[in-house]
Amino acid sequence: MSRSVSTAALRVLLVEDDPVDVFLVRELLAEIDPTVQLTVADSLPAVVDGGLLAACDCVLLDLNLPTTTGLDGLHALLAIDQTAAVCVLTGLDDAHLGMAAVAAGAQDYLVKGKADGEVLIRSLRYAVERQRAENSMLRLREEQLAAAESVRLERGLLPSPLLAGSPVEPRSFYRAGRARSVIGGDFFDAVLGPTGTVHAIIGDVCGHGPDEAALGALLRVSWRALVLAGVDEPQVLPKLQQLLVTERHDEILFTTVCTAAIRLDTPNEALVRLAGHPAPILLGRPPRPICPPIGLPLGVAADTVWEPVRVPLDPDWALLLYTDGLIEGRVLRPGQRLWEEGLLDLLTEDQGTSLDRLPARLVEQAQALNGGPLPDDVAILLLSRTGPPADADPAAS
Q1: Beta carbons of 229 and 193 less than 8 angstroms apart
Q2: 386, 188 in Cβ contact below 8 A?
Q3: In this structure, what DSSP letter does residue 7 have?
């Protein structure tokens, strides 16, 4: 019952057991609109057995069938197809029943003997259009509820870094490349491990669909669980790779990752590993990338070893981790992209920007150079040391 009736012949199913009433309805419709296609059934079982609802635009239902009483026939019809456009026919003494039928889901009611052809055809067409409008509103509402539920679910998958009790402050930026999506295949997280080391990760599942977004969320949550369980740092990436290989929906799917394990005792240092991911950047004058050996992405080769590099950190260090969506946008020079060199130039220019503002500022500049929104997911995690923990003894420092 979803086709437009404005450009096609109206298909009416009359459910009526009285031959006289059938004759009158047929004549009234033929007089006003000979193109109306009328199908007649003398009972609801005949409607069901013949599959007649699927072949009509509107049902004209007699409420006084021998097999039903009152609104039973309407309820049975709507139980078969709740989207059916139904006009009910009542007797001269049952106008109140017609109003009750409208309240129960019918689109209109007509009293036998009081409806001429014009009234009949207009009521049928209005019933179809009203039902189509109600169905459209229902589908729109369902889509809105589904979209809202999806947004709540996706926001729930975004991380809240667990760094309470450490002197490290996180700032982040996240934007999915998929239209109308909150989370994409990029992911990041930071947690304070059981030995007092701050662990951070940023990664990018290749692809841009909901499956990749779900896999990225799974990898992030699993990484957090491994770190909080005290798994030795060299074993974290191998275990993540095992998980990726088990859970990925496509055997060629891979994930790039950067991890940092930051010791906060004296002297501060970071142990950084790269699995096919852009190198993090130490902010300073000038900013400089950390360049450990770049291993293969997760999911490419089972025997991959990701060698670390140890990086001394200044007392007031700041470390920028990001995904390649930030640097793959084009710049004003035709055929060129921002890449790491361009990002370092932006960071040099933005040394007066506060750390709180810096992640969003970098994305704004990259978008301006790209001439519009960046097409890929973008994730940024900026960590910095702000001082001793709030519960630390100042005299001890």
Answers
A1: no
A2: no
A3: S
Compute, in degrees rounded to 10, the torsion defined by CA atoms 366, 368, 373, 374.
-20
**Distances in Å between the alpha carbon of 140 and those of 33, 79, 195?**
33, 22, 51
Asked if 12 and 37 count as a contact pair (C-beta separation under 8 A), the reply is yes
List of residues 6+ apart from 219 with CB closer than 8 A: 187, 203, 205, 240, 243, 244, 255
Q: How far apart are CA 369 and CA 278, in angstroms?
A: 20
Beta partners for residue 110, in sequence order: 89
Place of tokens 């995690």: 381
Structure tokens that stand for 165 in this block: 């009790």
Q: Which helix (H) or strand (E) holds 257?
A: strand 255-263
Task: Return the amino acid letter for 287.
Answer: P
- From 33-37, 63-67, 71-75, 234-238, the region with the lowest mean pLDDT: 63-67
pLDDT tens digit sequence for 182-207: 567 899 999 999 999 999 999 999 98
Cα–Cα distance, 197 to 313 (Å, whole number): 14
Element (H, E) at 281: strand 281-282
Sorted by sequence, the CB contacts under 8 Å of residue 41 that are 6+ apart come out as 13, 14, 15, 47, 50, 52
Q: In what order do the strands lie in the sheet with 168-175?
A: 168-175, 378-385, 318-322, 281-282, 288-289
Give tens-digit pLDDT for 64-93.
888 787 898 899 888 888 888 999 888 767
Residue whose C-alpha is closest to residue 322's, from 210, 186, 197, 214:
186
What domains can you pick out in the chain, each with its CATH number?
11-149 (3.40.50.2300), 159-396 (3.60.40.10)
Q: Which helix (H) or strand (E) holds 86?
A: strand 86-90
Contact 126, 107 (CB under 8 A): yes
pLDDT band for position 332 (50/70/90)? low
Between 258 and 124, the higher pLDDT residue: 258
Cβ burial of 397 (10 Å; 0-12, 13-18, 19+) is exposed
- What is the rounded CA–CA span in Å between residue 367 and residue 230? 40
Q: Report the SS3 class of residue 170.
A: strand
Contact 13, 56 (CB under 8 A): yes
Q: Which two tokens stand for residue 220?
A: 């992030």
* Average pLDDT of the residues of the chain: 86
pLDDT tens, residue by residue, 148-178:
655 554 555 567 889 999 999 999 998 887 6
Q: What distance in Å separates the CA atoms of residue 52 and residue 58, rounded to the nearest whole number?
A: 11
